[in-house]
From TrEMBL, chain A:
<dbReference type="InterPro" id="IPR036856">
    <property type="entry name" value="Ald_Oxase/Xan_DH_a/b_sf"/>
</dbReference>
<dbReference type="InterPro" id="IPR008274">
    <property type="entry name" value="AldOxase/xan_DH_MoCoBD1"/>
</dbReference>
<protein>
    <submittedName>
        <fullName>Xanthine dehydrogenase, molybdenum binding subunit apoprotein</fullName>
    </submittedName>
</protein>
<dbReference type="InterPro" id="IPR000674">
    <property type="entry name" value="Ald_Oxase/Xan_DH_a/b"/>
</dbReference>
<dbReference type="GO" id="GO:0005506">
    <property type="term" value="F:iron ion binding"/>
</dbReference>
<dbReference type="Pfam" id="PF01315">
    <property type="entry name" value="Ald_Xan_dh_C"/>
</dbReference>
<feature type="domain" description="Aldehyde oxidase/xanthine dehydrogenase a/b hammerhead">
    <location>
        <begin position="20"/>
        <end position="134"/>
    </location>
</feature>
<dbReference type="InterPro" id="IPR046867">
    <property type="entry name" value="AldOxase/xan_DH_MoCoBD2"/>
</dbReference>
<dbReference type="Pfam" id="PF02738">
    <property type="entry name" value="MoCoBD_1"/>
</dbReference>
Automatic annotation (TrEMBL), chain B:
<dbReference type="GO" id="GO:0016491">
    <property type="term" value="F:oxidoreductase activity"/>
</dbReference>
<dbReference type="InterPro" id="IPR036318">
    <property type="entry name" value="FAD-bd_PCMH-like_sf"/>
</dbReference>
<dbReference type="InterPro" id="IPR002346">
    <property type="entry name" value="Mopterin_DH_FAD-bd"/>
</dbReference>
<keyword id="KW-0285">Flavoprotein</keyword>
<dbReference type="GO" id="GO:0071949">
    <property type="term" value="F:FAD binding"/>
</dbReference>
<dbReference type="InterPro" id="IPR016169">
    <property type="entry name" value="FAD-bd_PCMH_sub2"/>
</dbReference>
<dbReference type="InterPro" id="IPR005107">
    <property type="entry name" value="CO_DH_flav_C"/>
</dbReference>
<dbReference type="InterPro" id="IPR016166">
    <property type="entry name" value="FAD-bd_PCMH"/>
</dbReference>
<protein>
    <submittedName>
        <fullName>Xanthine dehydrogenase YagS FAD-binding subunit</fullName>
    </submittedName>
</protein>
């Protein structure tokens, strides 16, 4: 592929719409006669609703209805009707299904009124009497009840490789430590919201905050027994999601229920507090036992994972794949158990399993490097994995060594004094730490369509999402590049269930999956264009194949003589005033399965820790990324920076705290749940190392959604150790832990 | 939000009249805390009296050679006022350590003193909280209490007062001028906020019908030796785990007068003049600073998650005193 548009740091094609407010989000679409729903949540963690009295709420002028388990219409309540594309094994939560309370803040009623404020007020008048039951919310207290799920949502832990017990017993140098990662909530800037427009005759158009409109559509048709043709889901802009929009959330169900019952348009927006009432990153505790030879070669790795799930679904994520991907070691033993609590089911959150798994592994490896008296980077080089030992396959490409080299050089790693507490500036202890990471570069099946009208305007569409990641821009660039048109002549459409099928926007696979479909459909447009161009009289491109011409600047030119050209507009004139229309299904390319595709990262961090007061400041971060071909360095850098900032939050600030007296996440607003602010973010540098990958997918890109975050928190934790000599094995590293 | 009536007044007398005898009436100025609390049904006033049109925004020198801050002067206007910056830099720094630029543009000096606690449970109407609902119990004492008080607590409440500004005002010995149906009175800042005792739902000694009209700063501003240290879980836009306001008057290396106020540790800004007196006439040494810090924390009590605050407060006081002495900017 040529690089007319791909690789250019183009501004976001939707940037203007976003800064001017023209870009509309789910809660901003209006409809005539719109009613507003407000959700009432359970005060208890487990038990039953003995009674729910809605009479005072209903008595208010303008309150239309209060939906509860008592008056909701009968639906088919089978598990299958409520499962979605991202459901873990189990029995999904069904809003207003019955009087049983399964978790604190469970939605128990929807008050619908003429205005939002009235609905919110009326919700305070609903009187609920509970019959509370004993509940289990304490992760640590329930670890001994941890179980192996019948079916893993994630990659199941592999059978042991080699002879891990013996190798560990015989290893000259050993470490054995436990690391804890807390529960975290996604908290995208935009709250979850659905606006359901009643179109009459049982037809609805739903504006939903979601990472896959077709997932919402399918969910609604299943849950409400609706005809697919009667439900259209639209989501042109998403104000961040980080995984919270992978599953349809309860506001969608409730809004649709109300709209269908009231035969009127309804909007339900969750409050910030309610953003803590559904999926979250599971609390994860990991025991690592590692053995190495005196010269620093890994002999054995044992990783035992305990991770939170709900009592009704077995959520699991890829926590145990990382030793096999990132370290060469012949003797490995893994286990992955779940701790079932009376909470809502955890949910994929940026780099699910990687953020937790790589954090613990990279801290453990740092401990091992110290025990060996080796430089942490040298230790990683010594145990470099040339192939993915989980799958026993070579990597499709792996420029991690180049990440080490460029990252270390930029950071000045070679000047590091390995001794903890060896660097000091005034009251501050200075520490340098590093870690590396990986994220799988999957390609999913995706469809795309393209229409090139006689005026030379190309519209390409696929039902994917742009959750702030830059999908609009990247796809526009791929399409423009392929057909040889300027960006402004290309429009990419997404977020509409009527568009060709797309996988969920997650897993760092959008560019590789949808991007490949966009390229494929545009390749078909090219083919057609060349065909048309060759129909011209005395065509300068007659009798040549597609590989003998170049599409650029709105022209098709001959490779052997670029002065010989046909403009795309002229070629289009041969189509009898018709547009060119194409549609494709793009599947992972053949031969791809012979390789293991991963993006890699290496992160170097400097922290300053106040010796007396324990405050930690991350003064410098350098992340070097091997992510295959970079479609747009500008949006790519933003994505990595976002991951790095989140890494600071994960390392130092973020934690949803469970009150075990109440069985309730108690810091449920942004005053008390801390994410980094500008003042926490200092020098940040992103390096994209050159990485050519001919196996991963037709465009050679690996996806950057998750790789930016995975190695940052462990690098910070390792830097804090280097600064202070204290190993804090429980995130977040708040100042009290360093006093 | 619950329905309420709303009226706008233009003078103090009418403001007082509007709330006198009215059940559950509240003044509203910046609304930066009250509106949030109304939205989540924690505060449910039936009558709001908008006082923003009363002429109480002025900041000017008072008769005693100090400065008078109009109750409706915004936090931003106060922090960046030339006389505050030069004569009371401690106050300026404390205000700027709180909230965000946007909030400080809205928040008023009078309202700042009347902020409600940020205790997790106070904000969650599904949990017991004696401050929100007297007699319902305290969820924090045996619950999650990392942010909560270590001094002056009661068995009914361990909430903290969230203001940074009030901590500086406590160190500066400010006076709060109020007007009520029975006329004007002056409340010294240390008597303005109260301890929870068995009435944690009452934050201050301001009467229901009283309005803050201004805050007087005494002439002495400790501009030569001051500091405000705020320790929190991120570098900005977070409430203090522990904060320390210091004003020192020095004669060579001898402390002539020391002012120390702590924030984030109690139901009110915490100042102990008798402990401060330990420094009077003493050499400014780390040992002497440590002695005072220990005196300040005598009787401090942790509740589990917040135990660390005792040691943190001790260290923060020593650091703050050193910083105020040397006037070296904190890194």
């Amino acid at each position: 592929m040529k690089t007319e548009q791909i690789g250019k740091p183009s501004n976001r094609v939707d940037g203007r719409a976003k800064v001017t407010g023209e870009a509309k989000y789910a809660a901003e679409f209006n409809a005539p006669n719109l009613a507003y729903g407000f959700v009432l949540n359970s005060a208890i963690a487990r038990g039953t609703i003995k009674s729910i009295d809605t009479s005072k709420a209903l008595a208010l002028d303008g309150v239309l209805e209060v939906f509860t388990h008592e008056n909701r219409p009968g639906y088919v309540w089978g598990d299958k009707n409520y499962q979605d594309e991202d459901s873990p094994p189990g029995s999904p939560f069904r809003p207003l299904y019955k009087s049983e309370i399964q978790f604190s803040m469970q939605p128990i009623a929807l008050v619908v009124a003429e205005t939002f404020e009235l609905a919110r007020y009326a919700a305070t008048l609903v009187e609920v009497v509970y019959e509370p039951d004993e509940f289990e919310s304490d992760f640590n207290a329930n670890m001994e009840k941890a179980y192996k799920p019948k079916k893993y949502k994630s990659t199941p832990p592999q059978d042991p490789r080699g002879k891990p017990e013996e190798a560990l017993a015989e290893a000259a140098v050993k470490i054995e430590q436990t690391y804890a990662h807390p529960s975290e909530h996604h908290n995208p800037m935009e709250m979850h919201a659905s606006t359901v427009v009643w179109e009459g005759d049982g037809r609805i158009t739903v504006y939903d905050k979601i990472q896959g409109v077709q997932n919402s559509q399918k969910y609604l048709t299943n849950a409400f027994g609706l005809d697919e043709a009667h439900v259209r889901v639209i989501s042109p802009f998403v104000g961040g999601a980080f995984g919270s929009g992978l599953r349809p959330q309860y506001q969608l169900f409730l809004a649709v229920l109300a709209a269908l019952q009231l035969k009127r348009s309804v909007r339900v927006v969750l409050t910030r507090q309610q953003m803590f009432s559904f999926g979250h990153r599971p609390k994860t505790v990991q025991r690592f036992a590692i053995g190495a030879s005196e010269d620093g070669k890994l002999q054995a790795i044992q990783q035992d994972v305990f991770a939170e799930t709900s009592k009704f679904e077995d959520y699991s994520e890829d926590v145990v794949i990382w030793p096999g991907v990132l370290y060469k070691c012949d003797n490995v033993k893994l286990s992955h158990k779940l701790v079932g609590l009376d909470v809502y089911t955890p949910l994929d959150m940026r780099a699910p399993g990687g953020t937790t798994g790589i954090y613990a592994m990279e801290c453990a490896m740092d401990e091992m490097a110290y025990k060996l008296g080796m430089d942490p980077l040298e230790f990683r080089l010594k145990n470099y994995a040339e192939k993915d030992q989980n799958k026993d396959k070579l990597f499709s490409s792996k420029e991690l060594k180049e990440c080490y080299r460029q990252g270390a050089e930029k950071f000045g790693w070679s000047k590091r004094n390995p001794e903890p507490r060896s660097m000091k500036e005034g009251h501050n202890l200075v520490g340098w730490g590093m870690a590396h990471g990986a994220w799988e570069a999957k390609q999913q099946e995706a469809e795309a369509k393209a229409t090139l009208t006689p005026d030379g305007k190309l519209t390409v569409g696929s039902a994917t999402a742009d959750i702030g990641t830059g999908t609009y821009t990247a796809m526009t660039q791929i399409a423009a590049d392929t057909v040889g048109l300027p960006l402004e002549n290309v429009t990419f459409q997404l977020g509409d269930s009527s568009l060709p099928k797309s996988p969920l926007e997650g897993g760092s696979w959008t560019v590789s999956s949808v991007g490949s479909a966009v390229k494929a459909v545009c390749d078909k447009v090219r083919e057609k264009l060349l065909d048309l161009a060759q129909q011209l009289e005395n065509s300068p491109v007659a009798n040549v194949g597609l590989d003998e011409v170049t599409f650029a600047d709105g022209k098709i030119s001959l490779n052997t003589d670029p002065s010989k050209t046909v403009s795309i507009l002229d070629a289009l004139k041969q189509n009898g005033g018709q547009a060119i229309e194409e549609k494709v299904t793009s599947k992972p390319v053949e031969g791809q399965e012979k390789f293991s595709p991963y993006a890699h990262s290496a992160t170097f961090v400097e922290v300053k820790v106040d010796e007396d007061l324990g405050t930690v400041k991350v003064t410098r971060v350098v992340s070097a990324i091997a992510g295959g071909r970079i479609i747009n360095p500008k949006t790519a850098r933003s994505q990595i920076l976002g991951g790095m900032v989140w890494g600071i939050g994960a390392a130092l600030e973020e934690e949803t705290v469970m009150d075990n007296n109440l069985g309730r996440f108690i810091n449920h607003d942004l005053d008390k749940y801390h994410v980094p602010v500008n003042a926490d973010v200092h020098d940040m540098e992103v390096i994209f190392v050159e990485e050519k990958d001919e196996h991963v997918n037709p465009i050679g890109a690996k996806g950057l959604g998750e790789i930016g975050i995975v190695s940052v928190a462990p690098a910070i934790a390792n830097a804090v150790f280097h600064a202070t000599g204290k190993r804090i094995r429980e995130l977040p590293i708040t100042l009290d832990k360093l006093l | 939000m619950r329905p309420f009536t709303f009226t706008r007044v233009k003078d103090v007398a009418t403001a007082v009249q509007e709330v006198t005898g009215q059940q559950n009436a509240k003044f509203i100025a910046g609304g930066t805390n009250l509106l949030d609390l109304m939205k989540i049904d924690v505060m449910t006033p039936q009558h709001l009296v908008d006082i923003t049109h009363i002429a109480l925004k002025t900041i000017e020198e008072n008769k005693e050679g100090g400065l008078r801050l109009g109750a409706l002067a915004t936090n931003a206007a106060t922090a960046y006022h030339a006389l505050v910056e030069t004569r009371y830099p401690l106050l300026s720094h404390a205000i700027l350590a709180g909230a965000t630029g946007q909030l400080r543009n809205m928040a008023t000096d009078g309202g700042n003193l009347l902020q409600r606690t940020r205790c997790y449970y106070f904000y969650d109407t599904d949990t017991p909280c004696n401050k929100r609902e007297p007699g319902s119990g305290c969820s924090a004492i045996k619950g999650y209490n990392r942010d909560l008080a270590i001094l002056g607590t009661s068995e009914h409440c361990i909430a903290t007062h969230p203001s940074d500004m009030a901590v500086a005002l406590a160190a500066l010995d400010a006076k709060v001028n109020v007007t009520g149906k029975d006329g004007d009175r002056v409340i010294p800042i240390l008597e303005f906020h109260r301890l929870p005792g068995d009435k944690p739902h009452i934050d201050t000694n301001l009467k229901e019908d009283e309005i803050i009209t201004s805050i007087d700063l005494p002439a002495k501003g400790f501009a030569d030796h001051y500091t405000y240290i705020k320790l929190r879980d991120r570098a900005s836009y977070a409430f203090a785990l522990v904060s320390v306001a210091i004003g020192l008057e020095m004669e060579g290396n001898t402390v002539k007068e020391a002012r120390i106020a702590l924030g984030g540790v109690a139901h009110k800004p915490w100042r102990l003049p008798q402990a401060e007196a330990l420094l009077q006439g003493k050499e400014a040494t780390k040992a002497n600073f440590t002695k005072v810090a220990e005196a300040y924390l005598e009787g401090a009590k942790g509740y589990g998650d917040n135990d660390f605050k005792i040691e943190l407060a001790r260290r923060a006081m020593v650091r703050a005193l050193e910083q105020a002495l040397s006037m070296e900017a904190a890194s």
